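User: Hi! I have a protein structure encoded as tokens and I'd like to know what sequence might fold into it. I'm fairly new to this, so please keep things simple.
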């Protein structure tokens, strides 16, 4: 809102009013506010578009030129709603009137347009699933090499450390694998399927965070989805492994491991992006490598623990 705007009374004539406005500097002169009352408590009774004032006869009164029902807004109204109200009424500027009906000023057309463009930018960014805005997303795409490395390499180093831990974890079950080499056949499958389920959930969560979706609802729905997908994958895997390798115990171990790993991966894929978002970090950079590491470790632990119990 700007307060340095042209103001007149009902009885002012167009000719003298034009002369009075000439040579003055206003923050917004697209409309003239027609008010009544004292200068400290002016009540808005109408608005004269400047083009109507310029084309009027000298003897026409402001009361005859004004729009008696102009769009008005209260201080503190959301910018986007204010901008659309001006557009719908075909007004260049938007009058601001407080709760007592006192005229406070105009919102200039340039600022209305800026509000519309900013909200359009935000809406487009949310539709595309970006975290903040198209401007920040564009910056992330166009940033120089040293910035790219600074944002990504630390998380990849975490992933490298996680891969070393995964190798150590597999080595801890070396004796069990040596007794039944077939256990090694399904390590990549269990880890990959858990990662795939987690990646889908992670993409949905990051997009949901960008549009302000309720994470409580997402937690419930995605948890159920992850468990259901794990159950379906397990049901498909069990008869296949049993028929190919002829081992009910091994087939059951792989199926149960898939079921549990997919459910856990969903929880991890939801929790890490949310925690990064709450801490002010962009989940697009760190949640992928970090959740992959955590999911891989947990998937290996689940698989070998279930295998140790069922296969022996």
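Assistant: Happy to help. Inverse folding works backwards from shape to sequence: for each of the 312 positions I chose a residue that suits the local structure. Here it is:
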């Amino acid at each position: 809102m700007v307060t340095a705007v042209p103001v007149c009374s009902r009885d002012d004539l167009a000719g003298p009013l034009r002369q009075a406005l000439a040579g003055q500097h206003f923050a917004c002169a697209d409309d003239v506010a027609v008010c009544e009352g004292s200068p400290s408590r002016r009540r808005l009774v109408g608005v004269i578009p400047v083009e109507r004032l310029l084309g009027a006869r000298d003897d026409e009164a402001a009361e005859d030129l004004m729009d008696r029902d102009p769009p008005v807004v209260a201080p503190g109204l959301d910018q986007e709603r204010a901008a659309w109200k001006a557009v719908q009424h075909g007004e260049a500027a938007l009058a601001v009137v407080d709760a007592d009906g006192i005229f406070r000023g105009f919102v200039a057309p340039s600022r209305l347009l800026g509000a519309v463009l900013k909200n359009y930018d935000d809406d487009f960014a949310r539709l595309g699933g970006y975290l903040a805005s198209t401007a920040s997303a564009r910056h992330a795409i166009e940033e120089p090499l040293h910035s790219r490395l600074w944002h990504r390499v630390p998380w990849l180093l975490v992933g490298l450390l996680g891969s070393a831990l995964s190798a150590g974890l597999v080595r801890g079950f070396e004796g069990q694998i040596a007794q039944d080499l077939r256990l090694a056949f399904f390590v990549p499958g269990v880890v990959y399927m858990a990662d795939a389920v987690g990646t889908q959930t992670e993409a949905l969560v990051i997009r949901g965070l960008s549009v302000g979706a309720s994470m409580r609802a997402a937690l419930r729905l995605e948890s159920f989805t992850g468990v259901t997908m794990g159950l379906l994958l397990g049901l498909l895997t069990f008869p296949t492994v049993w028929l190919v390798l002829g081992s009910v115990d091994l087939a059951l171990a792989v199926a149960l491991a898939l079921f549990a790993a997919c459910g856990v991966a969903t929880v991890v894929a939801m929790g890490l992006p949310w925690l990064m978002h709450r801490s002010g970090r962009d989940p697009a950079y760190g949640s992928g490598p970090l959740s992959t590491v955590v999911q891989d470790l947990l998937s290996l632990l689940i698989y070998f623990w279930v295998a140790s119990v069922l296969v022996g």
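A useful reference point when you look it over: The chain is about 65% helix and 10% strand. Feel free to ask if any position seems puzzling.
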